[in-house]
Design brief:
Distance between the termini: 186 Å
Shape: elongated
Radius of gyration: 54 Å
CATH topology of the largest domain: Tetrahydropterin Synthase, Chain A
CATH class of the largest domain: Alpha Beta
CATH superfamily of the largest domain: Band 7 domain
Strand content: 15-25%
Number of strands: 13
Order of helices and strands: HEEEEEEEEEEHHHHEHHEE
Structural class: alpha+beta
Number of domains: 3
Largest sheet: 4 strands, antiparallel
Length: about 350
Amino acid sequence: MPEQPPQDSSEFSAGQAALSSALNVSFKLLRGFMLLLFIGYLLSGMFVVKQHERAFVLAFGRVDGVGESRIKGPGAHWTWPRPFSEIVRVPTERAQEVMSLAFLFAVDVSEDGTWVPAPSGETLRPGFDGYSLTADANILHTRWTFQYTVKDPEAFYLRHKDGERLLTRLFEDAVVQSSAGLTLDESLRSAVERLQGDVLSHLRKSCAALQMGVQIENVRLLETTPPQQVFKEMNQVLAMATDAGTNVADARKEADKIRTAAIGEAERIRRGGQSAGQELLSEIQADAVYFEKIYAQYRENPVVIAQALRQTSVRRALKQVKSRYLIHTAGEGKQKILIPLGPEKKSPLSPPKNGSRPN
């Protein structure tokens, strides 16, 4: 076996130095990269809470902070990144809307995105068709929405395992209780607003009892309908009830109109009677004064006054005919006819129309 020539020690030293230098550079780059990675990791703990939000930090599963510092308000904040901490954002100033289809029959979504009733049989399908029972043991289908605002994020998200799901269950319980207090006709026509109010009242009471940390803003009833199996018949009943209600309303309106007219006519007659009575009283009083004056004159000159009264009575009788002729019988079968050409002069003893009497 041939002998190998001995290696030069200087070449070995140069290679070792080059390898050592390369390793040093690699380690420096690695340390720099690790430092940048660590800095980036720390910076990833920065988060911004928006104006309409509140947030809290879960450090190892528990809320970080004490007192008011537990809830982070709008602005920039920092916490240890995952897996040490978790950020939970809560919309607080904006109302959240939830739609409930729990009491509606099964629906399908059409091509244009609208809801249409799913094909149904002669009976309801448990697990598919939702409904509630009314006070008269009828079935009612309804579609609802309600809005709520989170006032206490810690209570809503941490005190309960699933706050949103629990809130939905409380709403459905409120609908069941409220529907059971009204008849089907009231729920469909005459007491829709009352049904909404009852659901809102029940839901608020339940949320307060469980300290949900939310404020219920409103409840809206979007749709009410009887079961599809009796939809046509129920619509006929409702149409008849609507017609009956319209007729009753028209009759009450007409009755009010007649009552108002009768009251007005009665008032007019009453005032007319009062006016006529007052006028008659005035005439009687004037006649009494006139009689006293005539009686006093009669006692002084009975013959003259009797003749004047007789003439006055004759004039009053003659005024009731259109044409008057005075026939005077003379001797030897001759007669004279006197025809008045001018207006008749009033006697000083005849009473004027205004009721006053001459002296």
